[in-house]
Amino acid sequence: AQKVTQAQTEISVVEKEDVTLDCVYETRDTTYYLFWYKQPPSGELVFLIRRNSFDEQNEISGRYSWNFQKSTSSFNFTITASQVVDSAVYFCALYGGSQGNLIFGKGTKLSVKP
Amino acid sequence: GAGVSQSPSNKVTEKGKDVELRCDPISGHTALYWYRQSLGQGLEFLIYFQGNSAPDKSGLPSDRFSAERTGGSVSTLTIQRTQQEDSAVYLCASSSRRPEFGSYNSPLHFGNGTRLTVT
To answer: Cα–Cα distances in Å, from A21 out to A78, A87, A112, B36, B107?
Structure first.
């Protein structure tokens, strides 16, 4: 069975703090893909990143960085110097080749206060 | 259009009535997904289309739920005899291809959803 766990339901930080959103996944597939999506208050889901299981290289995009560790089945997301506009619900998701759908975690609501 | 379009954006219906939710995917996208997001919950997978066929209907919660896709484009999600627990945001997403081994290079593009309220 495939599963995505985002243990942090809500996180509140003050602007300019760094924050890490945790994501732990379960899959029996050897080839799989991990994703992060952002859902701002407007409701639209915005794609942030995709990572395949063969590429454990960490990625940085501006203030965003992702740490993929197969040994712990984790794909954590860090926002550096958070801003109020980062306030949103963030979803981690998993696609495994044996299934046709993208499995989402329950999301982490991030509130960044000025 | 430029993005995935869903209509209506909001729907209020009485318990027991049928509703139809529409999704217009990005032009040329062959894969189409329906998800449901209840208040404070994650995204629950409902059904997936590749072209007009639905290889994975495993997420449909009951036989009151059905979906179809015609012409490889527009999809309709139908909920019959709505119940209050059906109240949620129904999200549609499309992708240029089904994620395949080693060839997935297109993320899902989501619409803004239809907020369904069953009273």
So the answer is: 6, 13, 13, 23, 21
Q: CA-nearest residue of chain A to B40?
A: A106
The answer to whether A79 touches A13, Cβ cutoff 8 Å, is no
Angle at B13 between CA B12 and CA B16, to 5 degrees: 160
Instruction: Write down the pLDDT at residue B56.
Output: 77
**Phi, psi dihedrals of residue A71, rounded to the nearest 5°:** -60, -30
Contact pairs from chain A to chain B, CB under 8 Å: 58
Chain A CB contacts of B101 below 8 Å: 31, 97
Query: How many helical (H) and strand (E) elements, i.e. helices and strands, does chain B have?
Result: 0, 11
Instruction: Give the pLDDT confidence of A28-59 residue by residue, as tens digits.
Output: 888 888 999 999 988 888 888 888 888 888 88
Distance from the Cα of residue B71 to its chain's centroid: 16
pLDDT at position B104 over 70: no
At B115, the amino acid letter reads R
Residue A101 has its nearest CB partner, among B48, B107, B112, at B48
First-to-last alpha carbon distance for chain A, in angstroms, is: 41
